[in-house]
Amino acid sequence: MIEARIHGVEFIAVNTDAQALHNSNAPIRIHVGKSLTRGLGAGMNPEVGRQAAIDTKEEIMTPLKGADMVFLTCGLGGGTGTGAAPVIADLAREAGALTVGVVTKPFSFEGAQRSRIAEDGWHALREKVDALITIPNDRLLSVIDRKKLTMC
C-alpha cells in the first residue's frame, strides 16, 4: 500500500525493534521504548510495549494531529503491537480521529501463551477503537490454499 502512494494517506510505522523499523517502507517511523528495550523489541511482553508507547506519546501524537481517520494495524500476541496498540488508539481518538483497528490473531500452532496474550490485547484494544476488524491467521491458511488472492 505504501508503494501505491495513495493521495491523502500518511503511513506511520511504530516499533520497539530498531531493525524492523529500519526495514519499514513507511515514510514516518517512530522508535518507541528506545531506552526500555534498547532497540531489541518487547520480548512478547505487552506491558513493555504499552510502556514504550506511553514513554513516546508526544512523538506518536504529532503525526496523529489533524487526522480524520486512523487505521491501526498490528499482529496480536507479541509485546509491541499488543501493548502499544491500545495506547496509540487512545491517542488517535484524543486527536479526534475515527479509529479502526485491523489486527491478526496468532496461528494456533504458535501456542496457548501467544493466543492468551492476543486475546487479552484484543479486549484492551476493543475498548479504545471505534471499530475492530480481526483476522485469524489460521483462516489465512485456508485462503492461501485457493491459490488466488485479490487486492482491491
Please provide a written account of the structure.
The chain is of the alpha/beta class. The protein has a single domain, classed as Rossmann fold, CATH 3.40.50.1440. The chain contains seven helices and five strands. It has helices at 18-22, 34-37, 46-55, 57-64, 80-94, 112-126, 137-144; strands at 12-15, 28-31, 69-75, 98-105, 131-136. The strands form two sheets. The protein has a three-stranded parallel β-sheet. Strands 1-2 form a two-stranded parallel sheet. Helix 1 links the parallel strand 1 (12-15) and strand 2 (28-31). Helix 3 (46-55) packs parallel to helix 5 (80-94), helix 4 (57-64) crosses helix 5 (80-94) and helix 5 runs parallel beside helix 6 (112-126). The longest helix has 15 residues, at 80-94. It starts with 11 loop residues before the first strand and ends in an 8-residue tail after the last helix. The model has no long low-confidence stretch (mean pLDDT 93). One of its GO terms (biological process) is division septum assembly. One of its GO terms (cellular component) is cytoplasm. Homodimer. Polymerizes to form a dynamic ring structure in a strictly GTP-dependent manner. It comes from Candidatus Jorgensenbacteria bacterium GW2011_GWF2_41_8. Residues 1-152 form the Tubulin/FtsZ GTPase domain.
